[in-house]
Amino acid sequence: EDQVTQSPEALRLQEGESSSLNCSYTVSGLRGLFWYRQDPGKGPEFLFTLYSAGEEKEKERLKATLTKKESFLHITAPKPEDSATYLCAVLGSARQLTFGSGTQLTVLP
Amino acid sequence: DSGVTQTPKHLITATGQRVTLRCSPRSGDLSVYWYQQSLDQGLQFLIQYYNGEERAKGNILERFSAQQFPDLHSELNLSSLELGDSALYFCASSVDVATDTQYFGPGTRLTVL
Fold first, then answer.
1. Please, are residues B89 and B47 in contact by the beta-carbon 8 Å criterion?
2. Do A51 and B48 touch (CB under 8 A)?
3. Which of A41, A95, B43, B95 is most buried (most C-beta within 10 Å)?
4. Closest to A77 (Cα-Cα) out of A60, A64, A65
5. Across the interface, which of B4, B90, B99 has its CB nearest the CB of A91?
6. Distance of alpha carbon B12 from alpha carbon B52, whole angstroms
7. Is the CB of residue B48 less than 8 Å away from at least one CB of chain A?
8. Torsion of CA B23, B26, B30, B31, to 10 degrees
9. Distance CA B90, CA B105 (A)
C-alpha cells in the first residue's frame, strides 16, 4: 500500500524567512510525485510533477526536489500570499493518487 | 481556474436522502476522478473513469456510485446519506491515466443534517 507522510503538520514563518516542507513516501513503482497547494474550502491547485530521483522544478518562490524516499518543497523568501496547505501525492503502479495529510503554512507579514 | 467545473457548490440535505454531484472535465481530458475530503481523513480517492468506462476504485462505499457520460461529464451519486458523509467532494480530470497530472475542480461541500 502506498503511503505519504508530510512534515511538519503546521509551519509559521515570518515574511522573507525561507524554509522547506518534507514529503516522505513509500510506493510500489513510482509513476510520479505531485505537489499541490490548497486554500481553505477550495480545490487543490497543481504546482509540480516530479518523475525521477534527482529531478528539480521551480516556480516563482517554490522549488521541488525528489530523492528515492522523499521530496522537499523549498520556499524562498515567502510572502503572506504563500499561506496555504501544501499537499504531496504519489502515483504508483496501482495508478491511484495517494495524498499526504498536508503541511499548513502560515506566512506572517 | 483549472478548467474543471463542479455543481452545485453547496448541498445541504438530511440523513437517508440521495444526492447527485456533477463534474465537467477540462476540454480534451478523457479521465475523471472523484475524491472525498473530510477533516479527519484528508483527500481520499473514490473512483476513476476513462472515456466512459470505470478504470479504478478506491475507498468508495457501496452506497456511492458514479458514471461518465458520452460527453465526458461525470456524476457521483450518494444515497442513504449518513452524518459522516458530510465532506468536500472533488472532481479531477487528466488527459490520460498513466502519469498525467490531475487538475481539480472547486468542489462540492455536502452537509448532511
1. no
2. no
3. B43
4. A60
5. B99
6. 29
7. yes
8. -60
9. 6
In tens, the pLDDT along A13-38 reads: 999 999 999 999 999 999 999 999 99
Euclidean distance between CA atoms B9 and B1, whole angstroms: 15
CB pair distance less than 8 Å for A34 and B98: no
8 Å CB contact of B107 and A51:
no
A18 half-sphere exposure, CB direction, 13 A CA radius = 9
Contact flag A46-B102 (C-beta cutoff 8 Å): yes
Q: Report the pLDDT value the prediction gives residue B99, as an integer from 0 to 100.
A: 63
In this structure, how many other beta carbons lie within 10 angstroms of the beta carbon of residue B21? 21
Contact A6, A34 (CB under 8 A): no
List, for residues B28-73, the tens digit of each pLDDT value: 999 999 999 998 778 999 999 999 999 999 989 999 999 999 999 9
Cell numbers for A103, please give them. Answer: 503541511
Query: Is residue B24 within 8 Å of B73, Cβ to Cβ?
Result: yes
Cβ within 8 Å, pair B4-A91: no
Report yes or no: B70 and B96 within 8 Å, Cβ to Cβ.
no
Which residues from B are below 8 Å from A59, CB to CB?
none
Closest-CA distance, B105 to chain A, in angstroms, reads 6
